[in-house]
Design a protein that fits this description.
Layout (H helix, E strand, L loop, with lengths): L13 E5 L15 E14 L2 E16 L4 E5 H21 L5
The protein binds zinc ion.
């Protein structure tokens, strides 16, 4: 049954960050096949050693290894999503000006 890989989102995983277009290729750790799965991620940004912002995003930028607890994150896609949400919040504040 090809295509019936079950990835358990409860398993803690090591996140490896890569920038690629299309497919990441085999797992950088063990060389097994990676499977793209839409998941939800907690993202935290830092300014220096201070936590600046934290939020939850969902998307199809994670590639899960079927053999070891590794997820390869496509930073190209994450960057696209973050710039889209930044634009959205900026235009949102323009369309809802404070009442005069
Ligand atoms: Zn692996």
């Amino acid at each position: 049954m090809k295509g019936q890989i079950v990835i358990d989102p409860k398993v803690p995983r090591e996140a490896l960050y890569q920038s690629f277009a299309g497919q990441p290729g085999p797992c950088p750790k063990c060389g097994s096949e990676l499977h793209m799965m839409a998941q939800t991620y907690m993202v935290a940004t830092r300014e220096g050693d201070r936590l600046a912002d934290s939020f939850i995003i969902g998307g199809d930028f994670g590639w899960f290894c079927q053999s070891c607890p590794v997820v390869v994150i496509n930073m190209v896609k994450v960057g696209e999503m973050l710039s889209i949400s930044r634009h959205a919040s900026r235009s949102g504040s323009r369309t809802h000006p404070p009442a005069a």
